[in-house]
Amino acid sequence: MTFGLATRKLHPKVVRCHGEGDKSHLTATEGLAALSLDALSSVAYGPEAIMLTLVAAGVGAITAALPITLVIEGCWAS
């Protein structure tokens, strides 16, 4: 019993522009060609981010090296 409500379809038909929807699936080759450039451009930023992190950690390590060295020297002198 719907109480005056129209029944709903599970998959309503979407109005598309002319020529749209002629092909609904990509083949493996087409999918690889379409999506591989996105992955390659994303991978290009990885080494840059790693180098930035290592440089920042290196600068922090250099500034902490002298106090740590002095503490070790002080422990050996005791």
Task: Give your account of this protein's structure.
The structure is a single chain. Helix content is 63%, strand content 0%. It has helices at residues 28-43, 45-77. The mean pLDDT is 75. The chain has a domain at 34-77. It is mainly α and 78 residues long. The longest helix has 33 residues, at 45-77. It is elongated.
What features would you highlight for this structure?
single chain; 78 residues; mainly alpha
Summarize the structure.
Helix content is 63%, strand content 0%. It contains two helices and no strands.
List the helices and strands and how they pair.
Layout: H1 28-43, H2 45-77
Helix percentage range: 55-70%
Strand content: under 5%
Helix/strand-derived category reads: mainly alpha
Termini separation comes to 91 Å
- The average pLDDT value, as a whole number, equals 75
Annotation, overall tally of beta strands: 0
Q: Major sheet, described briefly?
A: none
Low-confidence stretches: none
Assembly type of the chains comes to: single chain
Judging from the principal axes of the Cα atoms, what is the shape?
elongated
